[in-house]
Records
---
Amino acid sequence: MPNLIQILPPNISNQIAAGEVVQRPASVVKELIENAIDAKATHIQLNIKDAGKTLIQVIDNGTGMNEEDALISFERHATSKIKTSEDLFHLTTMGFRGEALASIAAIAHVEMKTKQENQELGTFVEMEGNVCKNKTPIACEKGTSISVKNLFYNVPARRNFLKTDPIENNHILEEFIRTALINNDIAFTYYNNGKLIHKLDKQNLKKRIIDLFGKAYNERLLPIEEEIDAVKISGFIIKAEYVKKNKSEQYFFVNNRYMRNSYLANSIDRAYQGMIQEKTYPAFFIHLNLNPENIDVNIHPTKTEIKFLDDKVIYAVLYAAAKKSLGQFTLINQLDFSLDSSFEFTPLKKGEMPTMPRTNFNPDYNPFEKETTNKISYPKQEDIFEDKGVNIFTIEESFKTNYSNNNPEVIQFLNKYIITKTKNNILIINQERASQRILYDKFSSMDFADISCQQLLFPYNHFFSPTHTTQLLELLPDIRKYGFAIEYQKDGSFNITATPNEMNSDDAQIILEDLLFELNQTNFNSPSPKSQKIALTMAKRLSIKEGKQLQDEEMLGIVGQLFSSSSCEISPFGKKIIHKLDMEEIDNIFG
């Protein structure tokens, strides 16, 4: 009887290994750039075609390899980084397992050109499915160029699981950003389908952040520094007024290696408590330098998870350093000690009485009453019952006919609910959700040919993150339909000169950021139309919020428009809008 257990052939075992190392094109980008960094390159160029499915090319000016090393580099567990088991606990290089090139070559066509400084000719190697198809001397520059073509050509199931080009490009861009942030002493160039995306010179960390995330960050960054025996902390955090609704710009680096660690990230978030709203998060770019013996990076194929010997100490130091930076720089920068404290005054003449300053005030002004930021107007109740052929909400009968009189009573409860009545029922309406439904119906049924907009008195430029910039460029045609006048500028910013009539310039900026965030929470290329997502985002942002005190006329307008909407019971986000109390329920309460 034949043996049931067999040794897998190299081509299959390499494909299995590739499944851990190469999950998508961005994984290849990461491995190749890390190899270039370990080769002591001072300039690295990344070329991408068709989101990495057709071509991923990394060119560096590092040390290069001789012919023998070039061939061995495609073997599994072939590495120049470690020689003994002890070396695993003193790692200073990016790669060390020797699996990357073997894994990549197992699922793609790979071409390598490499040359050392003291060689007259370099070496050209062509691999296909871990088989060397060609090896020949070649004239080339010092360093290494690796081209990965037709990724997953022999694993069609893996290729079919790849996302759309915009999504894969975003993953590649994010990998590029992570690597470029921590290696600011290296120049980088990034081309996508022949278009220059980034050209980064050798520079300090702050300049690198500004080049990657936009000029606006020049005024937003606060330095963070601390050093004890266990760890040295350096980098930048963001000013409290510039926090975001997501954690997309939170970057930790440990010994020049990107790391994910929600526990340590919480130490920075916690330092902002009391300064920012709930569910908002600060951006940060923080380097941690530790003794390699006190960390373990060999726990995950992507090497983005790191174990610490004592992460509680690091947490405490990070928290203290962030609090110190926020307290020191946000307070001092607001105080101007350069002003002359002396002032001029006119002395009184003998016998002249001083006159008290006169102050005009409005006795009805309430400083604690917050104005709404939107300009949405709700018509008077008597204007909203015109028959427009819309299906009216029917809990029992139509809203219009069930009112006890032509001017129904409305009251507001806790600045959150509108309470009104029909002949036989009491209706409790969530004012924010009702407003969302009204606005969503308006925006989703707009006739784009008749859309109106308002020119901004002070047009402004806004920078988005690289990932969001790519997405926003694709969304521009849809966004413009709603009345936005927005153009992409050469410096990487977006110039906003006009907005829909319903919003102001502050709303416009936040709506664009919210839209990009919501798209990333789900799927940037999901089947639902982008126009629907824009309508949802605008409705959410411009709706009347809980806590807003309303006048009777406003409440009547909301109630009337709600009952003429497409679905007055459910908000566009699937939440309940109305709760009905009938006479029987009320009687039962009192037994």
---
Amino acid sequence: MTRPRTGTRTPDIAVTDGSEARTSLPQALIVEPLSSPTYWQKGMALLAALVVTALAFLASRGLRAMTGQVAPMWLSNAVLLAQMIVARREQRRWVLCGGTLGDFTANLLIGRSLHTSVSFTSADMLQVVIAFAFAPRVTTVAEFIRPKALLKFLFGGVLLASVASGMWATLLLEGKIGHLLLPTLAPWFISDGLSLIIITPVAMVFWSGELAGVLRSGNRFKTCALVALVGVVTSCIFGLQISAPLLYWVLPPIVLLAFQAEIAGVLLGLLLCLAIALWFTAHGSGPLWAYPFEGMQHRVFALQLFFVAALGVALPISAIQMQRNRMIGLLRDGEKRFRTLAENATDVVMSMQLDGRLTYVSPRAFEAWGRAPEQLIGVHYADLVDAADRNTLAAMIEQVATGRGEASQISRFPRDGGLRWIETHVRPVIDPLSGTLNGLTAMARDVTEQKAIEQRHADERRELEGLAFRDSLTGLFNRRYFDRELKQRCQQGSHTETYLAVVMIDVDNYKSYNDHFGHQTGDECLRTIARSIAASSAKYTDLVARYGGEEFALILAHAEPDRALAVAEQIREDVEKLRLPHPPSVSGVVTISLGVCAQRSDKCGDGSTVVAAADMALYSAKRLGRNRTCVA
């Protein structure tokens, strides 16, 4: 086994998760085709793997020849592994077959025997298969370098795969694994391990199409300029014969590239830097020749360590930048969506500080308050309302600002010389990280029309109520309302000793009046009597009602029998003083008869007994000659 190689390990790299990485790539790169690949596509995948693996194998041999003693990196395994990672599942076995044929063909082309070629090819493919088993199933480099997936790949795909393939090659070539295993495996492990660490993600850039995406992006000119800057700086540092240790001056342009470009562009820059550094170092130039290394193998090993460090610096920066750009993009999209919703919403959308000072107002504010949104920034929201509602709205905002949930308030806002009813719904804004209250958001809706409708409905309800409980002829309450109110009064006074009086009134000889003058004059007579009764009892009575026909009824609260009789007599006298002509009557004018009943409220029951007693007193007054008052 005579293929000496060198290598090292890579540091941990913190990047975003795979779902985040996919969002920054062209859609064509991340969407799997729905149909299975055809045999033509499978054959092309096999052919591509064969050709690229063979060329990478020969390039690795060229690197070994260029450095004189060692192969700095074994490219073919890493290139084949990258192709298998990004290939579709149905194509992976074809890619592996193509890589196997390419590796075997290249071994034969450099003059190795059949046995040696089979041994090296089987060892290489064993490494690829084991590394693939530990590699994440991804389609982009950003997904490949996720922390958990990368650590799994480093310990299984790099360490285990390189050791296992080296032991297999030793066993096939030497027939046994002896005590010199470690010195024998060291060059193999270093060269193959370093290749898997550095070249695998670089090759994925080409196989996944990310490089083409970078070249098509809007930042392609800046990316190409920064990659060129890395190449120029590397060429100057390694090409000029300067004895000063300037190696680490290669890092600033790489870091700048990591800050400004996507991961694909960063890896392209690193590959260019590595190629230039290897070329000049192999030809006796560059800062590594300023150090007294024992030989080329150690000098190349130092260069490999440097590029692992550069990779460890650049990739985390690029990944963090990608995550930052994604977050900025999400924030911009969120702000755009918020503004679109706010500007097209029928409500006024607002943000305010905890003290109620406005920090954002949507354009709908002009329709609600007649003021441009920019004129409202910094204004206390409560100051916009009518003075009568200001304190109530300010208290509601303070309630929400102290963390007591959300609240709504309908307030009156001055507008165009009038008042507009505005419903404001205020909610707290909680910081998701700290959990603290850091602001308020509010929605304001003009409900003036709704309030007008509600007022109209209330008026209609009152009107209907009036129609249901009012007598249409006299305007007094009707019997239904009288009975309901009497029952309620009795129930309310059931635990008191106060008196409740009922006065029943009947127009004397009303039928003969109606027959003599006609119904219209009769109706007018009833209206006149109703007005007189209401006027006479206004100071004493709680309720006057038309009980039915020519009968009227009164409820007197807190009226003992003597007082109830006095009120009834006053009513009778006032009606008689009207001197309404009534020829069929003995007196010649319209008169009334009254019956009075006064009882203690706790003995009234539901009021029916009081009405019955007053009614009996009324009939007694009529029997005794009319135009008089009787008390039950």
---
Amino acid sequence: MGRINAMALALALAGCAAAPPGEAPAPQREPGAPLSVLQPPAAARTVEEFDTTTAAQRAAATRAPSTPEEMLGRTVASLGDPADPGFWALTPLVSSVRQGRLVDPVTGFSVLVELRPRRADPGAGTLVSLPALRALGVPLTALREIAVYSAGS
């Protein structure tokens, strides 16, 4: 009889740690994560859901450059990973991460981006973030030749 009581007590105590039904714990986010690094929702399906940038971030990214620039070259741009937030371009025109600007000669628009190195031949093209392509006014399915500039020091 003592064994049964001990087993019943163990089972009762094990149930104390279980959450009440229907109450899932809230997902944890890193405290203080800036808006520029927030990931799109897991259920994102539309361009607006994937683009997590704010109006202020878009305005800052499309302002005129404040430092001298060096033209790195022209490259064919296409959409990069839409789930990777922020303004960036993955390009074989740089060997290290640096700030830069993309210019679309068709629309005349430009956007400040983080230039990230891409291990590929220079003619392989550049993958551009969803928010950056939108700021350039380039259709998301287009292959567009753009100019790439590196921010001066």
---
Amino acid sequence: MASAKRYDPTLHAVRYGIKGILLFLLPLPILITSIVLLLRGQVFDTLVTGGAFAAFMLAATVARHGFRLQGEYERRKIARAPTTPYKTVAALFISITTGVLDWWTSDFVMGALPESVLIGAVAFLGFALYYGLDPRKDKAGKLSLGVTVEEVLEALDAANLKIDAIEDARRKIRNPEFNARLQRITNKAREVVDSIEDDPARLSRARKFLKVYLDGTQRVTEGYAQTHQGLAAPQALETNFSRVLDSIEQTFTEQQTKLLEDNHFDLDVQIEVLETQLKREGVI
């Protein structure tokens, strides 16, 4: 697992931020047409084409949000389906707007309405074939009995938020050694989260570990970062924090190994020992 490629949220954001850029470019001729009509004083036609351009831009924005949600859905082994079908809504906007524009070119003659409806339907089909529609089912992965998708996702989301907070605090610490050690700790934490996503049955065995351990590590790291940011800490405090990091890293490594190998371990004793040391060192 340690050799697995780490997910980079920045690359994810860039990839799905770019996807669908064509939807913003294709309506540009309509904007030009609207400007020309405005210069000619054709107010009604300007309103129609201008409204169509605005509708296309709105659809592109909604679709891009849908792409990002689907990207996150596809990335995770256990995921909720998007609650709002953003891509489908965007496809409907594009379909209706395309049909209205085609009908406008026919001066809104009733006889041309069926053809315009057909063209709108083709636009919807084209979007669906090229971009796809929204996923509608939750991804359960290797979900076991007694554990729901919601429980697993809530635990994983909460753990990731704590790890992100530790990362944010780490960046404020200027000590290179502490930075490197905290980086190893957060990497190990994400490996544990990944292992739970691979096998949700591990959640019940790691629940207290994720809550208590990550909470304690977050408090320690944030407290140190806030107290010593930009300041030279006394040697005694540096030594205490170093010992705390030793305990955190060692305990985390041991418990990750047990999580992967032992089906019946309990972390209560290890967590209590670690908390006792953190309190004794005066960092929590």
